[in-house]
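Bump. Still looking for YCII-related domain-containing protein structure tokens.
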Amino acid sequence: MYLMISTYLAPLDQVDQAREAHLAFVGELESAGVLVSAGRQNPPAGGVILLNVDTEAEARELMAPDPYLQQGLAEYAATGWTPTRGVLADWKN
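Sorry for the wait, here they are.
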């Protein structure tokens, strides 16, 4: 799995103008079966998307069409992650 942790690069009002398109994009990831979970950070300085993929390259390829990236509103840091405790510990691909 990969955590895609975003940091907003623009003021929140600008980010929110693209939020509907971003959420539609996230919905497409969910429909494709690669989204495990997603949400905005609190306070809203970015967000987190958890993808069920094996490599950083796959994660970055999936995220490339994100309107936030396309419009220069956010950047993503990719962190590989294997859950070992809690509700995701037995997650199966």
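The mean pLDDT is 95.

Edit: fixed formatting.
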